[in-house]
Amino acid sequence: LLFSNLPEMPILTVTVHDEDETNKFQYKVIENSGYGADKFTMVRNNDGTGSLKIVQPLDYEDQLQSNGFRFRIQVNDKGEDNDNDKYHVAYSWVVVKLRDINDNKPQFERANIEVSVYENAEVGKSLETFKATDPDQGGKSKVSYAIDRSSDRKRQFSINQEGTVSIQRSLDREDTPRHQVKILAIDDGVPPRTATATLTVIVQDINDNAPTFLKDYRPVLTEHITPKKVAEILATDDDDRSK
């Protein structure tokens, strides 16, 4: 029983009993003897035992590999030149089963989403729904969602476990016209792995601010003055000046 995605390493030690006093045990995986025979090799150890080693990557997410491997190994007691001599050769079947490890991050269906919303949108309004899946555990790994609060320090947005992002606190275009919120998808592996997506929120202006005079104006005039400009009145408006 193996975890997938292991490096080259011995996974099985084979011990052989031979009534002869001397021998030169040689081991090998029989080519084309079954699925997975090309992914393993046999080596002889100094004590005469043999070790089965991985020589190609294993991946539980591969549907064929997730069902395991079955192939034959061979040992002979007179060296490689006699590996077909039936009186000096023994065979055995090897069955290898893979166990999944958490080697994949969740994957978002859409990693970058942009939405527009008016600044007077109600608290609780849903903006967008993110969906992520995890290839581990045959695609059955549970994914949870969170917001990276370093991208939303005022906690103006929330996300539920269905991946729906909502307004949590009132927005103000005059304060922040654009938000880039980092959405996290976290799987249930040990240790957990995380993927990141981005929700860009464009806050649209509404006319929610009155104009403001730049200063108080108090011109002093003499009586009987002829018509002329006596003051220039200036005012500003925090709302979108293009409107």
TrEMBL record:
Membrane topology term: Single-pass type I membrane protein
Keywords (A to Z) from UniProt: Calcium, Cell adhesion, Disulfide bond, EGF-like domain, Glycoprotein, Membrane, Repeat, Transmembrane, Transmembrane helix
Domain Cadherin: 11-108, 109-213
One MF term in the entry's GO annotations: cadherin binding
One Pfam family linked to the record: Cadherin
Places the protein is found: Cell membrane
Gene Ontology CC entries for this record: catenin complex
InterPro entries: Cadherin, Cadherin-like_dom, Cadherin-like_sf, Cadherin_CS
GO BP annotations listed: animal organ development; cell migration; developmental growth; establishment of planar polarity; establishment or maintenance of cell polarity; homophilic cell adhesion via plasma membrane adhesion molecules; neuron projection development
Identification of the protein by name: Neural-cadherin
Organism: Spodoptera littoralis (Egyptian cotton leafworm)
